[in-house]
Amino acid sequence: MKKLSVLALVLCLSAGVSVAQFLPQQSQQTGTQQVPQSSPSIQMPSISGNMFTSSSEFFKNLQSQGLLVQPPPYDRTVDTNTYVLGPGDIVNIGIWGATPISYNASITPEGSIIIPTFGVLRVGGMTLAEAKAYARDELSKQFKNSKITLTLIYPRTFYVMVGGAVAHPGRYIVTAFDRVDRAFTLANLSPGRVDTLSFLPNFSLRRIRLVHSNGKTQNVDLLKFYMTGNLSDDPTLSQGDAIVVPREDMASGSISISGAVRMPGNFEYVKGDRIKDLLELCAGLTELADSTRVKVLTWNGSSYDEKIVNLEDSTALYEPLPVNSRVVVPINRTKVNDYYVWVTGEVKVPGLYPISRDSTKLATIIKLAGGFTNWASLSNAVVLRKADPSGYPYPGSAMYDTLSYLYKANGVSSEQIPYITDELLMRLHREQVSTDFVKLFVDNEQKYDCTLRSGDSIYVPTNHHSVYVFGQVRYPGYVTYHDGWSYSNYVEEAGGYTDASESGKVKIIKGGTLQWYNSGGATIMPGDMVFVPKVPIKPELFGWNLFLSTFGAVASIVTAAATVVLVIRTHP
User: Fold this and answer.
1) Is residue 437 within 8 Å of 381, Cβ to Cβ?
2) Would you state the pLDDT for residue 266?
3) What is the 3-state secondary structure (H, E, C) of 409-478?
4) CA-based torsion, 129, 133, 139, 143: positive or negative
5) How far apart are CA 108 and CA 124, in angstroms?
6) CB atoms within 10 A of CB 2
7) Distance, CA of 309 to CA of 325 (rounded, Å)
8) Checking phi first, is residue 79 left (phi over 0); if not, alpha (psi -120 to 50) or beta?
9) Distance of alpha carbon 535 from alpha carbon 505, whole angstroms
10) Hey, what CATH topology would domain 466-532 get?
11) What is the reported pTM?
């Protein structure tokens, strides 16, 4: 929340508003002359020679008379039915007759407008609309057959008090167009600076109290204003107002919203909060939200009571929520469309590509990726799919023992079990999708154009034009590919068999599918592997060796014992 508060203050400052006329009372010591509450000395030019064509010219004229005045910022056209005139407002009186006359006058501290050749109009406390009608009625008595206008030129300035959990409590000069957030921002600025934020206390943005001069109080929710921009949550200031900013108090009560909303969060509770208020604080629902099954959890003192509400029913939006309520907005799974696949390796434009559920084909994505590069190895390209790792056996597990039993029951020898285990380990966490890149993209056999799923990875390796030879050979490693070579050629190129090799059971492992073939069962292509296994120790041979080693150890012990006895007898 503090980060959001700081962000809100920065946004206020970014409006580019001049602060010269709004600094707190102590800044007036610098000698800067402010607009006076009454300006009887200002010359009132007539339309005949010095009529102001715009408010900016009016401000320039005031500055030429030694007054430092800057036009205030406006966020909307003034509402003549709500704006109340008071001391310091500058208005224009227009008398549009045979000889047009225009007067600019400041409302005096007594609430009057002084008009030469006419007298005084008492408009203080009237709304702008009421003052317009009053001036028209009164001036028409003297200036018959003339159109009478009263126009607000410059709003008055006045003091408001800002206190509580702000960096610099005190009185601040504002205009009648300024709102609570303006005074709140000024009270948290470093003195005399608009580009540096002071140390900020832990203030509340939702429970600010605006106290009017008549004693009436209203709650101001600036957090909601910052989230929605709704000016009704940021009321304008009036003369004599005081702003009291309490500290944030989450411990006394909070309210939260989570799930399919744009900015989930836990917020300070304000009495009368509704789901509508929470939706405004969190910036609304996402496109994936299921607004018909929103879960509302209310605290009963020991646990949460759960209720499902339909936000399409407007009555649910406006029903007050108790303190410490929790609102959870579920995702409508039928709207989820975040489907994608990864394409890596030797394609022209690798990256993340969106797909449609159960309809996007492999060839479509390869086309989006720009096709293959000149270095692509199609025979080794694969489509990998996420798999459930809990489905894989591991040594010591019941599944591993069961598989070992099944291997043996189906005639798989003990020495072949590690091969199968290695293959499982190579595919751990990933499963291959059944396809053939060569047959699809070279031979154009469409049955290999598989349908992709979200999370699939398409990997097209580089064709290194080599074959990997490992196992019981003298120099394991990559051997340059030669068209037409058999496995024996590659073994010979790798230094030949070792003494422990079982040359009759050489295996060829295809680089793309990782399928195992007997030495004569597959044509070797770039990226394939040649594996030379080790001669297994036969059980009967192992037993004979064990007998011989045991017999030798016993014979050694007997010989040593006989030697000791002989030594003892020889040397009594």
Assistant:
1) yes
2) 92
3) HCCCCHHHHHHHHHHHHHCCCEEECCCCHHHHHCCCCHHHCCECCCCCEEEECECCCEEEEEECECCCEE
4) positive
5) 9
6) 12
7) 14
8) beta
9) 9
10) Outer membrane lipoprotein wza fold like (3.10.560)
11) 0.50
Output the six-digit token pair for 352. Answer: 């993340």
Q: Which residues contact 48 (CB under 8 A, 6 or more apart)?
A: 99, 100
Q: What pLDDT shows up at residue 403? A: 55
- Which residues of the chain carry a pLDDT beneath 50? 1-56, 58-59, 62, 65-68, 195, 389-392, 422, 424-427, 542, 551, 554, 558, 561-572
Write down the number of H helices and E strands in the chain. Answer: 14, 25
- Can you tell me whether residue 546 is helix, strand or coil? helix
The dihedrals phi and psi of 399, each to the nearest 5 degrees, come to: -65, -40
| pLDDT tens, residue by residue, 188-233 | 886 655 545 556 788 999 999 999 988 999 999 999 999 998 888 9
Q: Cα 292–296–299 angle (5° rounding)? A: 170
Helix (H) or strand (E) holding 364: helix 362-368
DSSP code per residue over 71-107: PPP-SS---TTTPBP-TT-EEEEEEESSS-EEEEEEP
Q: What is the CATH number of domain 38-155?
A: 3.30.1950.10
b/e per residue 191-215 (b: at least 16 CB within 10 A) = eeebeebeeeeebbbbbbbbbeeee
Which one-letter DSSP state was computed for residue 237?
A: P
- The burial class, CB within 10 Å (0-12 / 13-18 / 19+), for 521 is exposed
Q: Which CATH superfamily is domain 2-29+158-245 in?
A: Outer membrane lipoprotein wza domain like (3.10.560.10)
* Protein fold of 254-335: Outer membrane lipoprotein wza fold like (3.10.560)
Stated as kind and residue range, the H or E segment containing 276 is helix 275-281
Radius of gyration over every alpha carbon of the chain, rounded to an integer in angstroms: 44
Structural contact between residues 526 and 379, judged by C-beta atoms closer than 8 angstroms: yes
What does DSSP say about strands 529-532 and 507-509: parallel, antiparallel, or unpaired?
antiparallel
Sheet strands (E) in 239-316: 242-245, 254-259, 265-268, 294-299, 304-309
**Which runs of E-coded beta strand occur in 294-448?**
294-299, 304-309, 326-329, 340-345, 351-354, 382-386, 430-432
Compute the distance between CA of residue 555 and CA of residue 159 in angstroms, rounded to an integer.
113
